[in-house]
Amino acid sequence: MTENQAAHREIPGGPPFRTPAAAPGRPVELALVPDPRSSARPGRPFSQRTVFTALGWVQLVAGALLFPLPGPGLLLLALGMATLAKHHPWAAERVHSFKRRALVKVAHGVRTLTRAVCLFVITLANTLAGLPWVWSPKQPRWWALPS
Predict the structure, then answer these.
(1) Rounded to 5, what percent of the chain is helix, strand, coil?
(2) Separation CA 106–CA 100 (nearest Å)
(3) What is the distance between the alpha carbons of residues 7 and 21, in angstroms, rounded to a whole number?
(4) pTM listed for this prediction
(5) How far is CA 25 from CA 4, 38, 52, in A?
(6) Concatenated DSSP letters for 51-92?
(7) d(CA 145, CA 147)
(8) Residues 74-90: tens digit of each pLDDT
């Protein structure tokens, strides 16, 4: 791979990267930095980038406010970061690194057949334990809302 080809290579499934020239004796692949030119996305109009950026920040703030409460706080945080990652390289880098770490953890959790079977049995037990509340929930005495 020539130095010019390495400087403009993209990593599949992640944000565009540029590879700076490596020091003598070091492989080029060790030094990856986000490409600052990827934040503009020249094919999209400015108004669309602005709307998606504002929407992403609203989702992040709403997710942060709802996170300690029962509700979709974590889902809104993830959705906000994914929305921002479409137009901002810093968000794309964080989403990509989170995705990479999550896949490593999942692969570690099901590395052996015993672990995979245990995970399946625990998930099945939790699902079966929740079914009585879905089929015939009894309203507690302290519940203030009408049934």
Answers:
(1) 60, 5, 35
(2) 10
(3) 7
(4) 0.52
(5) 18, 29, 43
(6) HHHHHHHHHHHHHHHHTTSSSSHHHHHHHHHHHHHTT-HHHH
(7) 6
(8) 999 999 999 999 888 89
